[in-house]
User: Which sequence fits this backbone?
């Protein structure tokens, strides 16, 4: 990758570091920092529908944080909740298109719960800084949603 | 009794009668104004529910809410927890919205009294 692709890739890695912070219950500040807060931003998570505009996008991340605040499987782990493989970044002007595969593991009381989903992220260079303006992943399989839903229902992992 | 607030994008409407069968439809991502209107309306119709009332909360097109929308739903659920009704059901298609509503129902002590139809 060239220098500009490296800069855009760094923003993508920051996004996934922010996601790990959020899933570990450390809040959504880092996630908010890496996003543009405009009315045109969009996101779709492994669960749920499209969120359009920063208000909806922010609410979707805050709810994700609330959901995973119930997860207590972090205490004994030193690895990250998830990582991305095969990151490919294409930069055209001030826009960067990134594709990758997100691989995450939650250690639930019933055993490990794994998630492998293709991801697309779009970043835009605004005032010299790369900001996420679009995030999209495959939908999680029904059994993953059911396990997370059950965790929310009972209030713990 | 029937009322409607908001737009095609976000809002709520109530139809039917709280004494017998009441449908509360909620949709979109609420502005603070819509959230406040919902709190006011809920304070009017929830006390009118009776032990014979059937309540349907249609959240099929509701998006996950920010602070104001969550607080309006929380106030609604807390009021509902103190009310008498025969049965109450929730419908939603959005998995993340369902998780948010599940969390709020649990926080408000309603998780055993309001079931998801889908």
Assistant:
């Amino acid at each position: 990758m060239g220098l500009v692709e490296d800069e855009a890739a760094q923003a993508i890695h920051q996004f996934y570091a922010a996601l790990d912070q959020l899933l570990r219950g450390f809040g959504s500040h880092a996630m908010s920092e890496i996003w543009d807060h405009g009315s045109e931003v969009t996101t779709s998570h492994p669960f749920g529908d499209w969120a359009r505009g920063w208000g909806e996008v922010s609410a979707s991340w805050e709810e994700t944080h609330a959901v995973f605040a119930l997860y207590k499987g972090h205490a004994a782990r030193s690895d990250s909740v998830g990582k991305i493989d095969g990151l490919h970044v294409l930069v055209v002007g001030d826009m960067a298109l990134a594709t990758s595969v997100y691989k995450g593991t939650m250690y639930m009381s019933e055993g490990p719960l794994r998630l492998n989903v293709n991801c697309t992220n779009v970043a835009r260079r605004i005032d010299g800084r790369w900001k996420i303006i679009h995030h999209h992943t495959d939908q999680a399989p029904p059994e993953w949603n059911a396990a997370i839903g059950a965790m929310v229902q009972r209030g713990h992992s | 009794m029937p009322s409607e607030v908001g737009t095609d994008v976000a809002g709520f409407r109530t139809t039917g009668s709280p004494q017998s069968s009441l449908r509360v439809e909620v949709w979109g991502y609420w502005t603070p104004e819509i959230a406040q209107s919902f709190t006011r309306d809920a304070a009017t119709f929830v006390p009118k529910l009776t032990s014979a009332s059937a309540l349907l909360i249609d959240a099929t097109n509701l998006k996950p809410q920010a602070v104001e929308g969550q607080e309006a739903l929380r106030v609604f659920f807390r009021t509902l927890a103190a009310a008498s009704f025969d049965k109450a059901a929730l419908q939603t298609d959005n998995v993340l919205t369902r998780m948010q509503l599940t969390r709020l129902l649990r926080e408000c002590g309603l998780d055993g009294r309001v079931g998801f139809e889908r």
